[in-house]
Amino acid sequence: MKSLPTQNPNQWQAERAKRLHRICGSIAARLARGEKKHKLIQWFVWYWKGRCYKCDPTRPLAFSKSTIERAFYLWKKGGRVAAALLPQYKPRQPAIPAPILVRLAAFCASQPLPSLKSAWQKFSARGGSFGRGQHASKPLKISYGQLCYNFPAADFYLIQAQIKAEETARINKAKLLCKVIADIRCRLPERPPRRRVRRETEYEI
C-alpha cells in the first residue's frame, strides 16, 4: 500500500495568503469605484464556497464572511501585501532570565561536574537571590527541561572539557617542573664550593 504524500504545512498557508491577497485587492479596487463592501464580501464568500486548496485538495478553503473581513483589515494594516495575511506566531517567552544562566555557566566553569543535570541540581539548591520571585535560601522552581531548552548540554560539555584540559596541563606542567628541578640537583651541588685564598708568607728582616 502506497503512503499518501505528506503536505508541507506552510504550503496551504502561503496559498491561503495569496488568495486572500487577491480578494482584498479586488475589494479595494471595487470600493474605489463606489461598490458596497458587504455585497462584495458576500459575493466572494459565495464564489469560493466549497472549493479546496490546490496544494491540498482535502482541505477546504473556508472563506467565511468574518474571515474575509478580518483578512481585509489585516491586509490594509500590514501594507497591502500577502505576507500580512500569513499566520503571525509569537515566540515563546523564555522561562529563565539571562542572569540565572550566566551564573550557572560560571558555576559550571568553576569545578568539574559529571553532567548538566547534576550541575543544575547543585546550582538550583543553593541559596541566594536569583531575580524576581526567587528569594534567598529558597531553591529555584525551574525544571530541568526548561533548562535544557535554554542552555544546550553541548555548551556544558565544552566547558567541562576545557576544565579537564586545564587540569591535565597543570599536572603536566608540575611534572615537567619536578623533572627539571631533579636534573638540576643531580648536576649541581646545593652550595657552591668555598674558594680557598692562598696566604703568602711574610718574612721580617
Textual characterization of the structure:
The chain is mainly α. The chain has 2 domains: 12-85, no CATH class; 98-187, no CATH class. It has 7 helices and no strands. It has helices at residues 9-32, 37-47, 65-77, 98-109, 116-124, 144-150, 153-187. Helix 1 (9-32) runs antiparallel to helix 2 and helix 1 packs across helix 3 (65-77). Residues 1-7 and 131-136 have low confidence and may be disordered.
Outline, from the CA principal axes? rod-shaped
Amount of helix: 40-55%
Low-confidence stretches: 1-7, 131-136
- Structural domain count: 2
Mean pLDDT: 82
Major sheet = none
Encode the helix/strand succession as letters.
Answer: HHHHHHH
The counted number of beta strands is 0
N-end to C-end Cα span? 135 Å
Give the oligomeric state.
Answer: single chain
Strand content: under 5%
Class based on secondary structure composition and strand pairing:
mainly alpha
Number of helices: 7
Radius of gyration using CA atoms only: 39 Å
How is this fold's topology laid out?
Elements: H1 9-32, H2 37-47, H3 65-77, H4 98-109, H5 116-124, H6 144-150, H7 153-187
Helix pairs in contact: 1-2, 1-3
For this entry, give a set of tags.
2 domains, 205 residues, rod-shaped, mainly alpha, single chain
Short account of what is shown:
This protein has 205 residues and is an all-alpha fold. It folds into two domains: 12-85, no CATH class; 98-187, no CATH class.
